[in-house]
Specification:
- By secondary structure, this protein is of the alpha+beta class.
- It is 18% helix and 39% strand.
- The strands form four sheets. It has a 16-stranded antiparallel β-sheet that branches.
- Strand 23, helix 6 and strand 24 (387-395) form a beta-alpha-beta unit.
- The two termini are 42 Å apart.
- The model has no long low-confidence stretch (mean pLDDT 95).
Amino acid sequence: MSQLAIKLFGTEEPPAEQRVLTAGPITATFENGQLRWIRIGKSEAIRAIAFLVRDRNWSTANPEISDLSIDQSDGGFRVTFTASCPTMDGTFTWRGQFTGTPDGTVQCIGVGSPDQDFLTGRTGFVILHPLTGFVGKPVTIEHTDGAVERSAISMEIAPSQPFLSVRAISHEPLRGVKAEIRMEGDSWEMEDHRNWTDSSFKTYCRPLSLPYPYEIAEGEQVRHKVTLKFTGTLPKDPVGALGPVTLRLGTPSGRMPAIGLSVLPEDAGAAVRAAALVKVAGVQHLNCRIDMRAKAWARPLGDYAKLANGTGAKIALEIVIPAKHKPADVLARAAKRISAAELKVASVIVTPADDLKSYPPGTPVPEGVPSWSDVAAGARKAFRNVRIGGGMLSNFTELNRKRPPKNLFDFVSHATSALVHAADDRSVMETLEAVGHIIHSTKAIIGGTPYRIGPSHIGNSFNPYGAEVTPNPSGGRVTMARTDPRHRGLFGAAWHLGYLSQVAVGGVEAATVASPVGEFGIAYRKLPNEQPWFDRAKGAKVYPVYHVIRGLAAAAGAKRVESQSSDTERVRAVAWRRGRATCVWFANLRDMPVQVRLPDLPKGEASLMMLDEETFEAAARDALFCDTGAPFNGSEIDLRPFAVARLQIRG
């Protein structure tokens, strides 16, 4: 299993064990101290009920589960356990009791306390509501004062909390069935989790208007209870096993986006040494960053010039300027040094340093931060005949809270990360659903201004919500970490394919994902942290994600073909056409095999390339691995866990 786990996840650390529970017409999955994917019949009612412990930097502690007892009998279930949650400030231990009864009622009780005075961003139950069946639908909110509010969930992503002082929430997960979830032990409020690329809405305890991080004293007890009840005409049976996924191709619609890589200053020299592989990957641009707060901020400029010459990619320069400085003055200095380094830039995006941090609703924003207009004017004065971008180098959250005026910039951009709130495999893959919602909302904000997305990674290049990213020396599944081992496994290739499929559907001009080398790299090089298999293999050159980037970069500007998956939680796809040739890429997003049916492929000579556990080693040693494929004349394809496939059809 260890070698297979390395190929799939980049680490020998096994994923958390799951146990599917039933209670009358509902199913729920117990995983790592949480109840997840609570379904009534075929419809998901609640994405998760989880008692979370977050440290002062908002990283979520991975609980160590002990004393676990699971009783599935008499048409229901009862789960009890102890969860020990270690953080930088000590350990918070809580006792969980989750029950489900034959009428579908679920009750979750969590009681705990820290072993010493304890600083936390949040500790207690959170409830995640799925997007499907929730977004755009009516909800009823019971507030803590007893008032009842009837509203609807917005299609656009709300920058602030849609509901405050919440005691209970009701909605219809399927026609004729009402689900009510009730919280006790604190005051809850709801936020639009899509802001952080989570595929959910989150109802959480302790209002953000209160100070944080806050202290829980040694021995102080936190006690919460959550109850989920269903009323109406309930289905008799829970959902059965999942079947094949059908993938259908439609008509051409729009153009495929340009694809680029991100280069951070600390990786510039190593990226130059990987320039030949980057050139073969064929990316259209490189997002290269300078941070003018650093004394040696100009040092990487020469390497960026070498990268441009060695790869043929255009340079999109990201400039972080110090707080409370006039943009025109600072950028004039930058332009001189850039010219002296003989670095030609195609576009520039400028971010004041204060905009790298998050300011939740109600939090005061520092004074003296340059306005959007001052940033744009300073950039246009310093960089003539260059596209000037606006937006954020941090997540969509910050763009949504500080929106640029329409028509001020030549393009607008923001970054994303898949590790802000949860680090388990399913949650990271589920972020792909939120990407589509983010694209929709960003377009509503910026109007007709061109839209570029990225740098976007599984991990985090920095932490907008705390002092630093979470250290991850052992290469585990950790929130708010820069290093995530799954990036270098088949998981990472499948995630990037799914991400770029959403970008293509959304009509985004360009996407920047991954990097030439480093924690987000497409080309292998030694890192401070161990990289199982790669560090010992002879001839290892690239990670599986390299082939996805290369394949999608080759499609830039081609006519996109509509591709519809019958189950986007398991399989996502993207297709395009050039001349009489059609190319279809699709990925299995789960750790279990899936059969894909393709009933309406265009006629012609077809070949199939498969990137999976069987071809992993060959693909890692050969940057041109995807140039070949086996003849294919069927209509069904079996995908192994996290496999990525490409069909080429020449009519």
